């Protein structure tokens, strides 16, 4: 065990975690030049297309130090985006140390601080690394100053590297071996191993990724999942070296995988403890904090026959993404579906894309909302995240919505534009802090509902990519909340309803009606699209009907002949409108979601 080191790489978005992981893998000779590709640990198409990491990935790196000792280094690469902070917390629970990467031109940013605090909670050894020193805009002295003052770490111990060029990688390996302690644990004790990830293989069942704290496990052992209470026989154990490499056993301190013929997905839970059935551990490991979703949306299959396959897909997906929370739901317009909770809007987008790509699901998603609290006149309090359950307005005494404390790091020149954006989003209690010259930290209290749509994208565009954003939920505050209904041809479409602040309702209703007008195909009759609060119509768009030129055959003659034909056509259209139903295409639901991002 003295030769094992478990560490992860943590940083803000785009500070070079995946690139550094690439260099470490190449240095350990796990892959030859012909097979190598950038972002080698990011094995999802979405990760490669967007250039972001979504899933923590594990790899075992063999390393021989300068003194000739051989080490086994288990690297866990983590995501940087605030929506995937749950992945980071799970990775940190499996490590003894962390490389904290800081971009030499951008400096310390919001997620750098958030990830540092998360690592400190786990008592990890932290090695600060200043990356991208080859950039012309790199300012190493300023970044060292920020590491010293903002992070409270010793800047003299910070390593300099360029992950792109490969400089300084050898120093990083040596620092990992010297500064990160070996795992503590005892191979003689009863087996305790923590499940930190899992994925479903249609041939072999559930493949469990685990960190062994005490004891050993080998093929042929009968294991028990302590929280679930189920027993399984181990078929194979091994380590991750880009591919799964089988081993004779996994012992205390090691990180690897375990296959035990777990056929049903519901038998596995992330954060569960594995022990031996014959010699069980006295108690469960602490596992992970239950994740609290902040954005809610419903998912429905396009064809109602696909409901069971969507249910199956969500169960398998949940195994690989423990942050997703879902329960059954139904809608008058869309049939049976699921109400899902997400950690943010990027998380929602990724879940949607992965369900479509990896599980071949055709789905419709409803407008995202947050959890609101309503105090009723009879003294009860209801918490709702679905507009369908909005209480009767006459019974509501007051409504409350969740507020966040947003921490925004920007260069000084963008202060005016960012303040304006926050004020537009009903931001209050602004505070300014100048960590170093030329950089400003702005703190704002804002309603979460104003942030979940496109706040992050807008912030990035007005700060030309230099703004960074992190937030924490602080409390619920009183707001004037109303339910906005969208009516198509006089009928409410429950999947398009939303709960919104009264001040923003008119603006949102106009955008939603205009978007639907573009997307819903024209019919033989006139279609009215209306936004309504209760019985009051606050916006309207009209889709003009197709018209046949019934007067084409009338040339000359009395005007009353033309009028008679037009009146006849008008009556027919009116009758058609009463019996006609309007099919709303999937693209229309998507258009309403995107009204804020344009």
Strand-pairing-aware structural class = alpha+beta
Query: So, CATH architecture of the largest domain?
Result: 3-Layer(aba) Sandwich
Structural domain tally: 5
Percentage of residues in strands:
25-35%
Mean pLDDT: 84
Tell me how many strands there are.
31
Terminal CA distance reads 55 Å
- Helical content class: 25-40%
Tell me the CATH superfamily of the largest domain: P-loop containing nucleotide triphosphate hydrolases
- Shape annotation: globular
**CATH fold title of the largest domain:** Rossmann fold
The major pleated sheet works out as: 8 strands, antiparallel
The top level CATH class name of the largest domain: Alpha Beta
Number of separate helices: 14
Low-pLDDT runs of 5+ residues are none
Strand order of the largest sheet: 11-10-16-7-8-15-12-13
Rg, please? 28 Å
Question: Descriptors for this entry?
Answer:
alpha+beta, Alpha-Beta Plaits, six-stranded mixed beta sheet, Elongation Factor Tu (Ef-tu), domain 3, 598 residues, 5 domains, single chain, Rossmann fold
Description:
- Helices cover 26% and strands 33% of the residues.
- The chain is globular, with a radius of gyration of 28 Å.
- With 598 residues, the chain is of the alpha+beta class.
- The strands form six sheets. It has an eight-stranded antiparallel sheet with strand order 11-10-16-7-8-15-12-13, covered by helices on one side.
- The model has no long low-confidence stretch (mean pLDDT 84).
- The two termini are 55 Å apart.
- The chain folds into five domains: 4-179, P-loop containing nucleotide triphosphate hydrolases (Rossmann fold, 3-Layer(aba) Sandwich); 192-276, Translation factors (Elongation Factor Tu (Ef-tu), domain 3, Beta Barrel), CATH 2.40.30; 295-365, Alpha-Beta Plaits (2-Layer Sandwich); 372-479, 2-Layer Sandwich (Alpha-Beta Plaits); 483-596, Alpha-Beta Plaits, CATH 3.30.70.2570.
- It has 14 helices and 31 strands.
- The relative contact order is 0.08.
């Amino acid at each position: 065990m003295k030769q094992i080191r478990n560490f992860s790489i943590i940083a803000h978005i785009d500070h070079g975690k995946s690139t550094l992981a690439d260099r470490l893998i190449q240095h350990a000779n796990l892959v030859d030049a012909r097979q190598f590709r950038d972002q080698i640990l990011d094995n999802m198409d979405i990760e490669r297309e967007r250039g972001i990491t979504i899933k923590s990935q594990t790899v075992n790196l063999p390393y021989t130090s300068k003194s000739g000792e051989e080490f086994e280094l288990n690297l866990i690469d983590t995501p940087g985006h605030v929506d995937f902070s749950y992945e980071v917390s799970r990775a940190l629970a499996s490590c003894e140390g962390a490389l904290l990467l800081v971009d030499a031109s951008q400096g310390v940013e919001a997620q750098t601080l958030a990830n540092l605090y998360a690592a400190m909670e786990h008592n990890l050894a932290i090695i600060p690394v200043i990356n991208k020193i080859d950039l012309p805009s790199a300012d190493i002295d300023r970044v060292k100053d920020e590491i010293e003052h903002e992070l409270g770490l010793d800047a003299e111990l910070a390593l300099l590297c360029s992950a792109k060029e490969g400089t300084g990688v050898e120093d990083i390996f040596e620092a990992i071996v010297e500064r990160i302690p070996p795992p503590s644990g005892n191979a003689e004790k009863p087996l305790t191993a923590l499940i930190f990830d899992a994925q479903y293989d249609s041939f072999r069942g559930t493949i469990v990724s685990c960190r062994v704290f005490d004891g050993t496990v080998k093929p042929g052992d009968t294991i028990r999942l302590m929280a679930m209470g189920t027993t399984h026989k181990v078929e194979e154990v091994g380590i991750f070296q880009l591919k799964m490499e089988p081993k004779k056993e996994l012992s205390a301190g090691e990180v690897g995988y375990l296959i035990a013929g777990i056929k049903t997905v519901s038998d596995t839970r992330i954060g569960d403890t594995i022990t031996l059935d014959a010699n069980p551990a006295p108690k469960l490991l602490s596992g992970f904090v239950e994740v609290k979703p902040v954005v809610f949306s419903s998912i429905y299959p396009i064809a109602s026959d696909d409901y069971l396959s969507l249910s199956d897909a969500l169960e398998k997906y949940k195994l690989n993404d423990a942050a997703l929370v879902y329960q059954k739901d139904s809608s008058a317009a869309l049939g049976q579906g699921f109400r899902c909770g997400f950690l943010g809007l990027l998380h929602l987008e990724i879940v949607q894309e992965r369900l479509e790509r990896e599980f071949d699901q055709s789905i419709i998603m409803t407008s995202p909302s947050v959890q609101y609290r309503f105090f009723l006149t009879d003294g009860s309090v209801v918490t709702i995240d679905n507009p369908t359950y909005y209480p009767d307005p006459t019974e509501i005494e007051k409504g409350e919505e969740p507020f966040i404390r947003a921490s925004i790091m920007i260069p000084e020149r963008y202060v005016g534009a960012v303040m304006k954006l926050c004020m537009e989003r009903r931001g209050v209690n602004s505070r300014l802090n100048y960590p170093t010259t030329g950089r400003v930290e702005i703190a704002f209290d804002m309603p979460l509902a104003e942030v979940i749509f496109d706040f992050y994208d807008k912030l990035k565009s007005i700060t030309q990519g230099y703004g960074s954003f992190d937030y924490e939920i602080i409390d619920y505050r009183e707001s004037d909340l109303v339910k906005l209904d969208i009516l198509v041809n006089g009928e409410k479409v429950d999947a398009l309803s939303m709960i919104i602040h009264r001040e923003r309702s008119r603006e949102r209703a106009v955008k939603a009606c205009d978007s639907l007008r573009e997307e819903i195909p024209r019919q033989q009759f006139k279609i009215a699209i209306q936004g309504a609060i209760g019985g009051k119509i606050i916006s309207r768009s009209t889709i003009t009907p197709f018209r046949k030129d019934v007067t084409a055959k009338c040339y000359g003659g009395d005007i009353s002949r033309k009028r008679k034909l037009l009146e006849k056509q008008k009556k027919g259209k009116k009758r058609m409108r009463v019996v006609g139903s309007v099919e709303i295409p999937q693209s229309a639901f998507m258009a309403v979601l995107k009204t804020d991002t344009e």
